[in-house]
């Protein structure tokens, strides 16, 4: 009677487990890392680079997080941030003093913040998470960051300057024009401003004025513009005694 070969049975079980783990790692241990495919920011902004992970094993002190950067111009990726029980931000290089840890391993967070983004930060950022014994799955994820110049903004001081130097003078000129239109200045024609003593109206040739009219005394200017004959006639009339109330005596 043959005895069963226990050695061969144990070997077959090990081989079976190995094949299962090789062809279907999710049945053993796996980790999945996720990041947004693209991020857009303006120059000077603070950019939050989100990175989340899910693991079949609970995060322990052996869990590590690494962030690397590859410039838009190309080249090999360079690791600039490391986390292992605590954060290790970069002390030199392009991102020195501009990286802040925002992660929480217990909640599956491995995010960081990039402070004061510049145009030189354009490129691909990679988040890598390791949580032994999870060694399979998708431990890395990539994010393409695009930083653009910030659009110019109008400040309150700029608006005040525009109002003071452009709109205010325009408003004053408009008010002046409206005032001139509503209150026109009376302009007298030359014929009304001065009338020759030769030109007389009806009734004035006899020294008689229509009733109700106010008699205007001859001024020095009127006498100055008189002809010599008119001046003699004027003085002769002045010497005559007044015949009625219609005569007016000039005072010069």
Automatic annotation (TrEMBL):
Chief location: membrane
Ig-like domain ranges (all copies): 25-146
PROSITE patterns the UniProt entry points to: IG_LIKE
Entry keyword annotation includes Membrane: yes
Gene3D superfamilies reported in the protein's UniProt record: Immunoglobulins
InterPro entries documented for this protein: Ig-like_dom (IPR007110), Ig-like_dom_sf (IPR036179), Ig-like_fold (IPR013783), Ig_sub (IPR003599), Ig_V-set (IPR013106), Myelin_P0-rel (IPR000920)
Localization annotation: Membrane
Residue ranges crossing the lipid bilayer per the database entry: 159-182
Signal peptide positions on this chain: 1-30
Keyword annotations from UniProtKB, A to Z: Disulfide bond, Glycoprotein, Immunoglobulin domain, Membrane, Signal, Transmembrane, Transmembrane helix
Membrane topology, from the record: Single-pass type I membrane protein
GO CC terms of this entry: plasma membrane
This protein's name: Myelin protein zero like 3
Naturally occurring in which organism (per UniProt): Dicentrarchus labrax (European seabass)
